[in-house]
Design a protein that fits this description.
four-stranded antiparallel β-sheet, Neuraminidase, mainly beta, 0% helix, 173 residues
């Protein structure tokens, strides 16, 4: 960006981009449909696509610089369920598969706990919010049966309080 003017950057994709994250080291990641992901590192954009055709909805850099993503795609039947990924510097590694869930947001706290949020259709085809919690390599799932709709994002503060938001819903995690 120069002189407050925006400049278009050709990332070499025609896919919809859903999310963006940056860190203090100047790295930027944008990601979206069909596993498309691009990283700006050392002032150069490079492809870091997923091998899966899933849609990436959320990306997050941990305080230690690790890159995580949340994905999923609603189709019938669900061929690309929600998945939590970590980028190892070369490729995306699957950390947890959220069978039937679609994940839209991911964030964590300074204690190393990671939250991924989204939704699932219950047996009555009603959308229910879900949250996944990753701690010490173990992932646990919470389905909020008394609420309807999707959780679309999550943010953790330096105080380690985390908040999730979505379709007319707001939670403190």
């Amino acid at each position: 960006m120069k002189d407050d003017n925006w400049s278009r950057i050709d990332l070499g994709t025609d896919k919809v981009l859903n999310c963006i994250v940056g860190n203090d080291q100047g790295e930027v990641v944008v990601a979206g449909e069909k596993g498309v992901a691009r990283m700006l590192k050392d002032e150069e954009w490079r492809k870091i696509n997923m091998s899966s055709s899933t849609n990436i909805h959320g990306v997050w850099f941990s305080p230690s610089g690790e890159l995580f993503a949340a994905s999923g795609k609603f189709d019938n039947p669900v061929k690309y369920p929600g998945t939590i990924w970590q980028f190892d510097g070369e490729a995306w590694v699957e950390l947890a598969a959220a069978e039937g869930d679609i994940l839209y947001g991911i964030h964590g706290n300074s204690k190393g706990t990671i939250y991924a949020v989204g939704s699932v259709r219950d047996e009555n085809k009603t959308m229910r919010p879900v949250a996944w919690k990753g701690e010490n390599g173990t992932w646990t799932r919470t389905q909020f049966d008394k609420s309807t709709g999707m959780l679309r994002g999550v943010k953790c503060l330096s105080s380690n309080k985390c908040y999730a938001f979505g379709d007319s819903i707001f939670f403190e995690l």
